[in-house]
Amino acid sequence: MRRRLKIADLRLRGVLVDSSAAIHPGAIIEPSGGKIVIGARTFIDHGVILRGLGGTIEIGDDCSVNAYSVLQGGGNLRVGNDTRIASHTVIVPSNHVFSDPDIPIRDQGLRQEGILIEGDVWIGAGARVLDGVVLGKGCIVAAGAVVTGSVAPGTIVGGVPARTISVRGKDD
């Protein structure tokens, strides 16, 4: 009953939620002038924060966003089907412009290229994915990695900044 009330409340606020999605009552989902779409059989865990911030967050089917992760939509975020996002992950599709040291950063605007996460991606606990990144189909982001550049399909990355560790299915 509680889950149904949460989904009904979200729909009233303009969030598109498939009826088979499971959203923990402790999740915070705020369109904030944007749009949020949650696909079929997707699970949003306790403490997750989804904030549209004037952009769009689209989460595909059969995904999981685990506890205390933060996903923002300011520059638009698209998460493909079958993606796993571990706890404490932060995904931010925007960045401050800071090129002119004589102007306060707050007055230089934002860069908002967006983030695309293709299907069957696994993002490990505590990872950060920054604006302008494409995570290719089937790639893996190691726990604690900071992803500042796009990742090719099937590639495993880790570190700060994230670098290629291996490629799935390749014999060493």
What would a concise description of this structure say?
The protein has 172 residues and is mainly beta. It has 1 helix and 22 strands. The chain has one domain: 3 Solenoid (UDP N-Acetylglucosamine Acyltransferase, domain 1).
Polypeptide structure, described:
The relative contact order is 0.11. The protein has one domain (2-167): UDP N-Acetylglucosamine Acyltransferase, domain 1, CATH 2.160.10.10. It is globular, with a radius of gyration of 16 Å. The protein has 172 residues and is mainly beta. It has one helix at residues 2-12; strands spanning 16-17, 22-23, 28-30, 35-38, 43-44, 49-51, 56-59, 64-65, 70-72, 77-79, 84-85, 90-92, 95-96, 110-111, 115-117, 122-123, 128-130, 134-135, 140-141, 146-147, 155-158, 163-167. The chain contains one helix and 22 strands. The strands form four sheets. Strands 2-5-8-11-16-19-21-22 form an eight-stranded mixed β-sheet. The protein has a six-stranded parallel β-sheet with strand order 1-4-7-10-15-18, with helices on one face. It comes from Maritimibacter harenae. GO terms for molecular function: acyltransferase activity. Pfam families: Hexapep (PF00132).
Keywords:
single chain, 172 residues, mainly beta, UDP N-Acetylglucosamine Acyltransferase, domain 1, 1 helix, 22 strands, 6% helix, 35% strand
Which structural class matches the secondary elements?
mainly beta
Give a count of the beta strands, DSSP E runs of length 2 or more: 22
Using the 3D structure, state the CATH architecture.
Answer: 3 Solenoid
Give the full name of the CATH homologous superfamily: Hexapeptide repeat proteins
Pfam families: Hexapep
GO molecular function: acyltransferase activity
Family: Belongs to the transferase hexapeptide repeat family.
Keywords: Acyltransferase, Transferase
